[in-house]
């Protein structure tokens, strides 16, 4: 099939590459000429495990193309995916301007039947709006379908190639047939394609993200209670997660959820609820808990340094909002850096993949280390913000030797508490007993 993907970011590039990998001819369109240039020349623009190999193969086999020209890019396509940003607007609701501007442009240039697919995360009623905007300018037949994306960064290729389910919102038989055919290679193992109406598909995406965020905030509150009552959140997590009805995943406490999705999508669902005069109480609490959780380690650090961080120097391991990505959008590490610097401390940071993005954002606000151990030099303590595998089994002697005093504040519960005690560290984590 001939496919176009408008917006070549994390979702668009993965979507385009994976559709090319299943034999389709794909054109990706982006307004960022620099990005399109790099991609056309074989240079991948995001760090996503497994993507580069597929990208290179499909580029070489001429199934993957890049352009900045929308008209040229969609001319021959049967299906046009919109993988455009839907950032929070000023009031927290999803900003649909990227989607609606492209819809208007499409309306002016379409000359034959196309299936236009909202892959971006968009509020209920957006497919209807896109339909209306395109229809205002276009005389030919077209269908607008909602096909929310559930991939996670860091495992995006696997998630796209083997999705738990594919959700397709359309009431058009013609579009349903096209979409069913396109997604058939991805559901061979019996994972379902769930056809539904557009609004239900749109709400499914927000409900899924909000539920997962709720699980995390819930466990973060249990972690606080564990510390107050002397229980161990690792044990409680295992005990709770072994119940099939609850499940083991997304129960890891830490320094809050970040990224480009959970924070904005929970907020957008609360806003959508307000628009229909509904106060979504649980989600308001989920957001409050997460706001607090991002700075969970700060009071502990303050207490350890007698409430005086002026002149103190910290090493920070991990900046990306989660491991295996270079994405730093809404990363809890950034909130911690702000708090430490505001209290008069200095910070040297290290992340295996996110350094370029952080340097672009923070400039000289922090110092940058080339290596995880170099980062520790002259630091009063080590703070861990992201659970990259390389941080899981470090050389503790090296850490001890480099830090001014052996203190670790771990926002992702990487190490065994009793082992840290044996090694003589002051070690504080989330929902477990601190050791001196
Ligand atoms: N990142 C994820 O893990 C993820 C997963 C599922 C769903 N989503 C949703 O998918 C959507 C896209 O997210 P993303 O993370 O890929 O965003 P992104 O910012 O990485 O990519 C968006 C791309 O769109 C381009 N763009 C902006 N305006 C354009 C225009 N007029 N024409 C062509 N290109 C244009 C930008 O240059 C950018 O490359 C959002 O709605 C997001 O909520 C994201
Ligand atoms: O038990 C857990 C699991 C995750 N997190 C945090 O939650 C955030 C989000 O993690 P994750 O969901 O793995 O990453 P995303 O790439 O943001 O993916 C989410 O957001 C995407 C965009 O909508 C959806 O497509 C995915 O299904 C959904 O998992 C990160 O900060 C994690 O550190 C925890 O604190 N505890």
Automatic annotation (TrEMBL):
Keywords in alphabetical order: NAD, Oxidoreductase
Active site: 261
UDP-glucose/GDP-mannose dehydrogenase C-terminal domain location: 315-417
GO biological process: polysaccharide biosynthetic process; UDP-glucuronate biosynthetic process
Top-level taxonomic group: Bacteria
Binding positions (substrate): 150-153, 205, 250-254, 258, 322
Keyword Hydrolase attributed: no
Record-listed E.C. numbers: 1.1.1.22
Alphabetical list of InterPro entries matching this protein: 6-PGluconate_DH-like_C_sf, NAD(P)-bd_dom_sf, UDP-Glc/GDP-Man, UDP-Glc/GDP-Man_DH_C, UDP-Glc/GDP-Man_DH_C_sf, UDP-Glc/GDP-Man_DH_dimer, UDP-Glc/GDP-Man_DH_N, UDPglc_DH_bac
Protein name: UDP-glucose 6-dehydrogenase
